[in-house]
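Input/output pair, single chain:
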Amino acid sequence: MSAIEQPLLQIENLHVAVEGKEILKGVDLTIRAGETHALMGRNGSGKSTLSYTLMGHPKYEVTGGRILYKGESIADMPTDERARKGLLLAFQYPVAIPGVSVSNFLRASVKATRGEDVPVKEFRKELKEVMGRLGVPGDFLSRYVNDGFSGGEKKRLEIMQLSMLKPSLAVLDETDSGLDIDALKTVSEGVNALVSPESAILLITHYQRILNYVKPDHVHVFQDGRIVASGGAEMSAKLEEHGYDWVTQELAAAK
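Output:
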C-alpha cells in the first residue's frame, strides 16, 4: 500500500473495557486524509469511549483488536506522543485552568506538539490569523483558560488550539454541545477550515444540527459499542427525521 493510499486511521475489531466492563464491542473504522467523518449515536452508546481510547487514556483498556495511525500501531504509545504525531482530541467538557492565560497556554501547546519553540513574531502572526477567522477579540488572550468562559467561548478556544496545532486527525467529541446558533456557525466554520488534503476530522455528535454546517463525507451510527450502519451525508437527515430507532428497525428487517 502506498503512502497516498494508506489510511490516516484504521481501527480493526476494537474491544475496550473500563474497570472490567466491556464498552466497545468490535469497532471497525477507516479514515483517510481529506475526509470528514461523523459518528452519531445516543448518549451512552460508547462514542466518547472511542475518543478517549484513541488518545490513550489509561482508564480505557484495549482488550482486543488494533488501532493503526498512519500505518503504525499506537496501542502502547503515550498520549503526548500521539499528539506529536498529529492526533488530537477536543473534549466535550473542557476544564478550566485558573492562573494560566490563553496566550501562554496556546504557546506552550504549540511548542509541545511541534517539539520546538516558535519565534514570537511567527506565533503572533499565526494566532492573529486564527483569531480573525473565528471572530475572537484580542482581550481573549489575557483571560485564564476556560475560567468563567461561556460554552461558546470554550469551544472557540478548542478550535483556536486545533487551528494552531494543525493536527492531521482531529477528533471532536460533541463540539456542538451547549452552543447557541451563532456560536455553532462560528465553530463550524473553524472546523471546516481544519480539513485539508493531508488531514481529516472525526466529528462525534448525537445531534444533526452541526451537520447543517459541517458536511461529512461519511456518517456512521454507533449503538451498543459498535458501528452498526454507515452511509453518506444523507444518513444524518434520516436520523433527524426518524430517530435512532429507525436504524434498529432497518437492521432487524435486513435479518
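The first strand starts at residue 9 and ends at 18. The chain has a mean pLDDT of 88.
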